[in-house]
Amino acid sequence: MLALLLIRLGRVVPTEVLVEELWRDAPPRRPVGALQSHVSHLRRALDVAKGPGEPSLVRHRAPGYVLGLAPEQSDAHRFEQLVAEGRRLLGRRDAVAARDRIAEALALWQGSPYTEFSAHPVLLDERGRLEQLRLTAVESGAEARLALGGAEEVAAELAQEARRHPARERLIGHLMTALSQLGRQAEALELYERTRSHLVAEFGVDAAAELQRIRTAILRQELDDGPAAAPAVPPAVRPAVALSPPAPTPGEAERPAPPGAGGEPAEPAGPSLFAGRARELRLVTRAAAAARAGHGHVACVLGPAGVGKTRLLTELATSLHASGDAPDVVWSHCFPGEGVPPYWLWAQVLRGLSATRPDAFRAACAPFEALLAPVMPRHPADAAERVAPGGDWGHARFLTHDAVCEVLLELAAARPLVLLLEDLHWADAASLDLLRLLVTRRHDRPLSIVLTTRQPEMESDTSLRRALSEVLRGPRTETLRLGGLSRQAVASLVEAQAGPGVRADVIDVLHERSGGNPYFVTQLLTLLGDVRRLHEPGAIEVLLASVPAGVRDALRQRFTALPEPVLRVLHLCAVIGTEVDTHLLARTAGPDEPVSAALEPAIAAGLLAEDPHHPDRLHFAHALVRETLTDELDRQVRHRLHARVAEALATRRPGDEAGGAEAERVAHHSWHGRSELPAARVLPRLLRAAEDAEHQLAYEQVEIWLRRAVHLVGTLPPDDRETLRLEQRLHIQLGQVLATTRGYGAAEAEAALHRGRALGTALAAPEDPSVLWALCAAQLVTGRYDGSLRYSGLLREIGGRTGDPVALLGAAYGAGIVLHVRGRLPEALAKLEEGVATADRFAHQALTLARTFQHDPRVSCRSYNAFTHWLIGDRTAAAERRRELLLLTEFDSRPSDRAFALYVDAVIAAWEGDVDTAGRSGAEGTGLAENHGLLYWKAMLSLPEGWARTHSGQAADGLAQMRSALAELGRSRTHFRLPLHLGLLGQAEYLAGDPEAAARTFGRLAAAVELRREHV
After folding, report:
1. Which terminus of the chain has a lower count of CB atoms within 10 Å, N or C?
2. Residue 398 dihedral angles phi and psi, to the nearest 5°
């Protein structure tokens, strides 16, 4: 009982309140008598401290009791006064006096108060308030001592506090500063990463801007390393908040813990990252600031979970406090779940005001004590709402609402007031009724209200929608709908955390997957562990690999609120793809999947959206929704749905065109539904997709479809000749595609070609010149020139016997290149001229032959023809061949042909010392190769490009590019032209002023020449 009186020192505590708080749900049979007995015992215990003739310290004063101690006789009161004085001194930059006052305050702290009264909510709240005040004192004391050079003692004291309170960013910032001043920067940065990870994991927010600033200053060695003037502390006017805010729920973790949560109404140490909402912030600030002019304004911020509603309000509060005549800002949050009492929204408002303006609050409440009982947490609703028999409950409730309005309006009249009321989709009916009344009475009063609610929940809740419609109907109201951030805003959000230089394609992936939802962006970054990994080459793969746990949990909560038939249709939509054709959906859906009835609630829930340009098309709000839905499906169910979609797509409606994109969709769903479909039905679809991808020069896609077809053909009966023929064809095609993208030296390409040849032998089929040529090229590229000559001989024999153009071209080209590398240039030129003539003779078959050679043979044969002419000394003929190559490939050529022509042009330019041409052709070729996934040609062209960069004053970058390219070619077993490439590298190294590296490179060149009997 002493504790209950002590926390209201100087105030009368009504008898009814004391009874409720002492015994709660189990009062004695005669509670008033029992209370009087307690008072008597307490008086005897305390009266030994009073002087003779003085009244008892526990005094009766209607309608209850008051403790007659002077405030200075209470340690808690003295503690608060000393902390407040210390903070004022710190704000005036008097660090010495501030340190002493705060040290005096902390000396009074003997441990958490009222720990033995955990079952009493009001004492639990008071304990939390005082503990938060102690932490504020610790932070302010540390700030003062840092300003005086006391980094060592600050580091020692705050280390333990930081472990106990990992989300106190101001405390963490002071500890980081102390560690840095002691030369322990690595520990400071590690502490930052731990704190940031904790904030992201627990609340879905990044570190505040001030903490980020300290980290950046440490990284740049710009943090003061000695005594400095103390920075200003937060201003005296601060937001009043609920003392015990609800913990963030998944999806609402976008918000940081409300400022001052726990009782100390302090601001965050600094604004955390905020991007893309400048317009919305201006609007809501203008609305809230109207309170200062005496014009009550109401604004409502709508949006899905995680979109940044609370973040916007945090910035609003900061903006209001920064103004000269800051109003009081009161935060309050609704909370879901059972056990939340009526008026919880308003109880937090009143409790916050009682903490920040106690005297004014008591005066305003005095005329309405009984009426306020249902709202104030210390007054139980069951007791306060007792109505006399025959009484009017509606009338009593209205009087309570009116009393709350009177209190708030009176306080606002003394000092403008801004109420920030969050999560109204969880508000109880009584709280909404009170809000309606307050809104009608706030006109021409200095009281503004800013609300937040989730738009999907509002649209599906008739009572909430009606209430907000009434609240926002009148003048001076504003509705803001927050959508996803723009790509530019996401880039700002990301680069502020990871630093500048994050690649555009990484930003694109983050924006597309998150739909611009800031919480989802933050959660995606957690997949990387360290946000700095965004700069690494594999960042996109990590971001695409999975759905973050926080996002998955938030979305699953939304899914569980949907009826089962709606969820089934959503699962089907997820399998169909990111975009959903409603006609296809209707054809695919089963009898237990009512499409029309299911789409409306899915759209209302913000999971699907309509395409304004295509009325029959829907799309998921963002990719993470779709991925979470598909991840939920049992594997077999998912396969079954894919099979249904594949069959619906394959059975096209009249007028539908089966273009490349459609063929790819059919193949995609057929592959993923292969366990439910016959292989004989799936295989043709895969091959059609591969063919279409090849026409589009999408070689990586060709490889994917062929690999899948090879896998599937392995499930067919092995003794069937048609199966063997199909398998042979697939292995040959796969080998040729791998040779195009990775080079003929790639071991997997050669293995696939050998497998295709072996299957031909098993079928007793004649040798296929296309396979022999591919194997000949593999021997050439890997430096096995004798083996290459054997294949050339076989091709010559077939060509002489059949006149097959592939055999004739392969024989001439293969033999000519071997003669070239062995230094027999006149003989090589004769063979290569023969190849050029043959290629020109069969020019009408160029496209067909290119699929076999992986190049237009007119390009292949002219390439080494140009090199050989140049080495013989016929520069005019070499220049003509270069010109022909560039003209042949300028328009409508395969990317690999253009890359080959640019390679020849760049290498000869390097031989001639033409740095500009070598660099220009090299850069064009590497860009082309990268765009089309031609890894072999990217490496080949990087050599002359790097050579040109070295000769253009970019030695470090140029040499790194050349060495990286040589390493890549080595991994693909490409030894062909190695002496040429080593010669370019050695020359570049010598030019760059590194003769030792050049000597080593020329040594490698000599060894390569000797090993493979090449001529240089």
Report:
1. C
2. -60, -40
Q: Tokens at residue 834, please?
A: 């023969």
Q: Contact, 124 vs 118, CB < 8 A?
A: yes
Q: Please check the confidence at residue 660 and state whether its pLDDT lies above 60.
A: no
Contacts of 629 (CB under 8 A, 6+ apart): 559, 570, 571, 573, 574
> CA-CA distances (angstroms) from residue 210 to 169, 217, 268?
9, 10, 9
CB 101 within 8 A of CB 92: no
Q: Nearest 5°: phi and psi at 697?
A: 60, 25
- Gap between the Cα atoms of 944 and 657, Å rounded: 45
Tokens of 597: 């009835």
Residue 303 CB partners (closer than 8 Å, separation 6+): 309, 454, 455, 481, 482, 483
Q: What is the DSSP string of 618-629?
A: EEESSHHHHHHH
Going by C-beta distance under 8 Å and a sequence separation of 6 or more, which residues neighbour residue 942?
922, 926, 961, 962, 964, 965
Of 352, 373, 375, 354, nearest to 364 by C-alpha is 354
**Alpha carbons 540 and 527: distance in angstroms, whole number:** 11
| Encoded tokens for 688 | 């059609």
Average pLDDT over every residue of 635-664: 79
Strand-by-strand arrangement of the 417-422 sheet: 328-333, 417-422, 447-454, 298-303, 477-481
Segment 425-433 mean pLDDT: 91
The rounded distance, in Å, linking the Cα atoms of 174 and 171 is 5
* pTM for this prediction: 0.59
The rounded distance, in Å, linking the Cα atoms of 928 and 937 is 9
**Helix ranges, 271-392 (H):** 278-289, 309-322, 344-356, 358-365, 369-372, 381-384
DSSP helix/strand/coil, 564? helix
- Please, which residues bridge with residue 224 across strands? none
Query: Taking a C-beta distance cutoff of 8 angstroms, is the pair 507, 494 a contact?
Result: yes
- The one-letter code for the residue type at 181 is Q
DSSP H or E run through 301: strand 298-303
Q: At a CB cut-off of 8 Å and minimum separation 6, what does 1014 contact?
A: 821, 822, 823, 979, 1008
In angstroms, the CA 215 to CA 185 distance is 9
Query: What letters, b where the CB count within 10 A reaches 16 and e where it falls short, cover 146-177?
Result: bbeebbeebbebbeebbeebbebbbbbbbbbb
Strand 614-620 vs strand 579-581: parallel, antiparallel, or unpaired? antiparallel
- Do the Cβ atoms of 892 and 846 come closer than 8 Å? no
Query: What's the gap between Cα 359 and its chain centre?
Result: 47
Given a cut of 60, whether residue 909 has pLDDT beyond it is yes
- Estimate the crossing angle of helix 699-713 against helix 721-742, to 10 degrees: 150
Return the SS3 of 267.
coil
Per the CB < 8 A criterion, the answer to whether 795 and 838 are in contact is no
